[in-house]
Amino acid sequence: MAQFRLTVNSRERVVDTDPERPLLEVLREDFKLTGSKYGCGEGQCRACTVIMDERPIVTCVTPVRSANGRNILTIEGLAGVDSLHSVQEAFLQEGAIQCGYCTPGMILRTVALLRERPKPTEEQIVEALNGNLCRCCGYAAILAAVRKAAGARQTSDSKSAE
Ligand code: FES
Ligand code: FES
To answer: What separation in Å is there between the alpha carbon of 139 and the centre of ligand 2?
Structure first.
């Protein structure tokens, strides 16, 4: 057992646990943040994606010791007090959510992509989302949502440059 301090969705959290325990388990069971989903448990589906210090990571294969002192953003921390994040809005508008199991991972992967590349090419979008599996096969709508979110960002960028 050891003690770890993490900042999760801007809130400091402390946990005493086995250093090798998956971060996903700590988020879901200790912090009750169940938006990150358990899919394969082997780093293959990305349902468990969160953003750690600006990079998307899969939490099912990330030991909690690796998150010590880091900033974690989960899907619960994305929306504003009274408004959704623009990527969440785009997913809603495009009907990109079926059962919703893959959705937190898809959205956080998109947020990370747009932070790194505000104007991604089609190739960069596909490359970024390529490893995120959707068992409902909603890929067409999901890609449309990512394009819409990227476009909305580009429009607001060009407006602010005027
Ligand atoms: S549950 Fe983590 S990658 Fe599948
Ligand atoms: S919406 Fe069901 S897994 Fe993607």
So the answer is: 9
